[in-house]
Amino acid sequence: MFKETTSANPPILAPGILATAETCVETRTRQETASVLFVDQSGQLGGAEFSLMPLAATWDARREVLLLSDGPFRERLESLGVPVSLACEASVSGIRKDTLRLHWLGALPGIVRQVRAIARHAEHFDILFLNTQKALVLGALGKPLHRKPIVWHLHDIMSSEHFGPLQRFVVRWLTRHAVDHVIANSRASADSLVALARCAPENVPVVHNGVDLDEFRCESAPDMAGLRGQFGLPENVYLAGLFGRLAPWKGQHIALEALARVPDLHLVLVGSALFGEQEYVKSLHAQAARLGVQDRLIFAGFRDDMPAWMKAVDVILHTSTEPEPFGRVIIEGMAAGRPVIAAAAGGVTEILRHRTNGWLVPPRDVTALADAIEVLRAAPEMANRLAAQALDDVAQRFSVGAYLDQMKRVIAGTSG
Ligand code: UDP
Question: What range(s) does the Glycosyl transferase family domain occupy (predicted)?
Answer without folding.
Answer: 228-390
